[in-house]
Amino acid sequence: MKKLSWAIFLALILNSCQDVERMERPKDLIPQDKMVEVLTELSLLHGARSYNKKLLQEKGIAPYPYLMEKYGIDSTQLVQSNNYYAENYREYNDIYERVKQRLELLLKEYDSLREIEERERDSLRTLERDSLDLPIDSLQQDSLQRRLPGPISRKLNSFKIQDSVVQKSIR
Prior knowledge:
- The structure is a single chain.
- By secondary structure, this protein is an all-alpha fold.
- 68% of the residues lie in helices and 0% in strands.
- It has a domain at 26-140.
- α2 (32-51) runs antiparallel to α4 (63-71) and α2 (32-51) packs across α6 (89-131).
- The mean pLDDT is 77.
């Protein structure tokens, strides 16, 4: 009896796995290249929203309507396209690899711009320092430290103190 119940259980499991329905290709499927752009922008918007949501609200920027308007898509189209590509693992993986590459490229561009801005700020600081007409030492060295004498010897008997008043009457 146990063998028969195991056989029926196994047959039901195998039979249930056979009816996996695949989603049909949507009529308004977003092409892969455009999907890469949309997902890249979506990642940036998520990062901006996570970083400072209040600033986005103050500026009146609504991330999702902005994204939909910029790429001429609607939310239903985005969800259907995302679900379709998610069922097709290889295509979805290719899309996300390209998104990752674009984000890394944007990060390199941002870092290079930040380095340029830092160099400009450093050059402005140098100009400000030069415009004050102060010697370079005065900015880097303490003025009291330059006026102090050298160290004093602490050996015993290094100073001979002679009393100028000798009282002979006391002896």
